[in-house]
Amino acid sequence: MLQFLIRRLIGAVVIMFLIGAFTFFLFYTIPQDFAQLACGKNCTPENIAVIRENLGLDKPITAQFWEFMGGIVSGRDFPQGHCSAPCLGLSFSSGEFVWDSIIDRFPLTLSLTAGGLVIFLVIGLGSGLIAAWKRGTMVDKLVSGASMVLSSFQIYFLGPIVLGIFVYSSGWMDNPKYVPITENPVGWAVGLLIPWAVMATIFTAQYTRMARSTMIEQLSEEHVRTARAKGMRQRYVFFRYAWRGSLIPIVTIIGMDLSALLSGAVVTEFTFDLPGLGRLAVQSSLTKDLPLTMGVMLFGAFFILILNIIVDLAYALIDPRVRLS
Amino acid sequence: MSDNLTLPAQQGATGTSAETLLEVEGLTKHFPIYGGFPIKRKVGAVQAVDGIDLTVGVGESVGLVGESGCGKSTTGRLITRLLEPTAGKITYQGQDITHASRRQLAPVRSEIQMIFQDPYSSLNPRQTVGTIIKSPMEVNGINPEGGREKKVRELLELVGLNPEHYNRFPHEFSGGQRQRIGVARALALNPKLIVADEPVSALDVSIQAQVVNLLQKVQDELGIAFLFIAHDLAIVRHFSQRVAVMYLGKVVEVGDRDSIYNRPRHPYTHALLSAVPEVAVDDEADDKERIRLAGDVPSPIHPPSGCRFRTRCWKAQDKCASEEPPLIQISGNREGHLTACHFPEEPTTEAREEDVVMDPALKALEDSAADEPATKD
Amino acid sequence: MTTLTKTEGEKAPTGPEAFLSVRDLKVRFSTEDGIVKAVDGLSFDVERGKTLGIVGESGSGKSVTNLTVLGLHNPKSTTVEGEIVLDGQELVTATEREMEKIRGNKAAMIFQDPLTALSPYYTVGRQIAEPYMKHTGASKKEARQRTIEMLAKVGIPQPQTRVDDYPHQFSGGMRQRAMIAMALVCDPDLLIADEPTTALDVTVQAQILDLLKDLQQEFGSAIVFITHDLGVISDMADDLLVMYSGRAVERGTVREVLRNPQHPYTWGLLSSMPRLGGDTEQALTPIPGSPPSLLNPPSGCPFHPRCAFTGEVTGSRCSEERPALGEGRASACHLTAEQKQTIFIDKIQPRLR
């Protein structure tokens, strides 16, 4: 198990490096003078030259790349001051350290993800299980039908409607905003309630359908029938035998959704005008802010890789066949 | 056993047919297992087939029996060159085809055909029966007299299907009929050898006989040689003139039908035959010997040293672990009957004075039942 | 209640009260294509300590029957009519709770493929101990002790350590042994074995069959043994029921049915399988055609489209009138008793040599 973990971590580092290299060199294929971009409107050739030197843009591309990568591990010095590890460089457009910009935005993204996750897992998996348990009844048809309709909605469609009803016309709630949980937990929850609800609605439908279908599949497995043939209670068979087998596909999807959400829920953030990682990523790429784009990408890749490892560990916990092979 | 005759294997194995069609020497297939840390490397091998000798004569039907994991299916796939042999030599009509390239193999491929176990998955569901049977001819550029379609209709008729069904799809047929389609496809290229890998074991009992009879008709009328691979000993006996018994990648005994089924010498052949459940249509079944082995077949990744059967054999001695018994004609065997055993059994399947029961659980239950007759009802 | 045996010098068993009695069982599934008549008017009895073999091909309804006995069918898409009486208790109308008390306790089941029939997620020991704890109220410790004892009994080496293994760490034969231990852990009076050796190799099959026979001696359970293999049934069963298209077509003791079969389907089965001692020069005699669709079974006798002897029956009775299966030793066929005997001796028996 430890060996497995070490191997996976080494792999993760290699992949991170490759992602970094790919993004970096891809960016340099764009015919664009980054110093010009960083300089702004009133630029003199002298200014540009200074900026170029300050940002290290006068060096060869490979040297710049190694400098960037080195900064992640051991930090880097800029004229603006020391950028401690993990240093993702200096944003061309804002002049701030990339790491600071990311860390500034991350709590919102994390809050959005965590709250949404709790809601859509509880409601989604719960209603899926109920539908599977009551398979073929009105309850099942109702739940399946509702999830079918909801899953065809999109955040940018549902979001404005909800905002329109609860905020603009009735005035029951304020526009969604982010208040750090450390400052005011109630304000935090209230401020994000609408984005959570809208995001969760769309994800819930997906989880309901998946939980229902994998459970129905598992319930027809022979070992589930054996458990019933032993005289075990239906509920026991349902949760101990069928549910256990359903966990693998569910955990897989949770892992994928979670890593996508943690690297920024772009549509949700734009719909509700919340300054999260997703918006940062989009802005950085629109302004061709190379260090910022790379920083956000690597940050997201980090979560994807870590969650992948966690999902694999979860597999081993769930299924002893994975554990021993 | 000092009085063993040490005839080389091939010499005795020629069996009933005068002319050899296919000859296999030392055929070996090891499937590598990769693992290790941090760099993956070969850490072992599944020794699926480990040096077997076998011949099939022109028009002869040879049976290959054994339990799961004995390598019989792998052998079939090696001979049809669906798998690449690790070592050994396959000679077809005097031509070495062991490592023949695709192009070298082309003329031979059409002469060696295969029939698979599962008639459901071995037919493309999106093609009509006509297309399925026709395609081997197209691939090999064969234009029979009167056209391919006429040939297909003839084949359908030959295997007992309605030629009108030319444009139907496999799912419109029953299991037995699908296996007939598989036979027709194999016959499309006028093969000289058909490797039939468990051709009837997926079928219902009443349908099995239909397909066995069809294969027998094909063999008789078209003079096609068969390598008939199956686990069902009664069907193999019915179909094959000569039979090879495999255990853990080795041929342990080979000979004509009568020798294998009525005068077996290898303990494993004895055990296999005694384990076959038989319908008692009269009283003669009662005097069959009873041998109950212990446990399952060992893993082909780490097969036992020496004789591979020794871990389950009631006659095993030290010599069996240290020395691998050669496949030879031991004394008392007829010509062509080869056995790989240091301490062979008497050539009979009659009941022994005392049953061989190796299984500890059976032994315990039977001993206690013998001590005090069961009182519980 | 009439038992399965009678006449021809076979002694009628004493205490003829059947332990399991099935009367006119009808099981229907509703599918998208229509109603499948999986079992259509089936009756049989099983006595304590005896083995009833049920033999039939795929789609004969043999497995469905036995899932229905334990109430393991899908209640939503299945309708069950008729009577199933186990030790005086009617099961067709029993509630799920009542069935839970019977399953694994009074009546247990062994399935065909022990790899898929055991849960991959729990240890073998836990899966065996579960029903024991539920039905006897034993503690975890007691159940573990009992499990180890059972594993030893069915011949698992080092049961103290193997009890904590997962099913995939067992070989095929060992898994089926574990399955048997699981079924017998509560000492059931009835054991239903559904093709328990079909997935196993022949030498392992022989071990498992003998083990089942020996354990039956010790536990005294009645066994319903379902298989497609007449050889296996010949070895295992006392009484035999031959099923075709959801119905019983022949019934009697194993000796009666296999040595003096009276139904054309049984003749067909026997003469289509080669035997180790048979004449290899003689071609097999298959049953023509394929088993019928259960969605749309043939009228009259379900076997008549494949039967070679319909010409011997006057008129078109075979295609119009469903032959009844009498009590005791019987076969459901319109041929007269003399005709059956003559055909068997003249035409069938010579093929079985």
From TrEMBL, chain A:
The chain crosses the membrane at residues 9-28, 108-133, 145-166, 186-205, 241-267, 296-318. It is found in: Cell membrane. Keywords: Cell membrane, Membrane, Transmembrane, Transmembrane helix, Transport. The keyword Transmembrane applies. It comes from the Bacteria. CDD domains: TM_PBP2. Pfam families: BPD_transp_1, BPD_transp_1_N. It is a multi-pass membrane protein. One of its GO terms (cellular component) is plasma membrane. One of its GO terms (biological process) is transmembrane transport. Residues 106-315 form the ABC transmembrane type-1 domain. SUPFAM superfamilies: MetI-like. Belongs to the binding-protein-dependent transport system permease family. This is ABC transporter permease. It comes from Streptomyces acidicola.
TrEMBL record, chain B:
Residues 22-273 form the ABC transporter domain. It comes from Streptomyces acidicola. Belongs to the ABC transporter superfamily. It holds the Pfam family oligo_HPY. SMART domains: AAA (SM00382). PANTHER family: D,D-DIPEPTIDE TRANSPORT ATP-BINDING PROTEIN DDPF-RELATED, TRANSPORT ATP-BINDING PROTEIN. This is Dipeptide ABC transporter ATP-binding protein. Keywords: ATP-binding, Nucleotide-binding, Transport. One of its GO terms (molecular function) is ATP binding. GO terms for biological process: peptide transport; transmembrane transport.
UniProtKB/TrEMBL annotation, chain C:
Its main location: membrane. Residues 22-270 form the ABC transporter domain. Keywords: ATP-binding, Cell membrane, Membrane, Nucleotide-binding, Transport. PROSITE patterns: ABC_TRANSPORTER_1, ABC_TRANSPORTER_2. It is found in: Cell membrane. Transmembrane segments: none annotated. GO terms for cellular component: plasma membrane. GO terms for biological process: peptide transport. It is a peripheral membrane protein. Belongs to the ABC transporter superfamily. This is ABC transporter ATP-binding protein. It comes from Streptomyces acidicola.
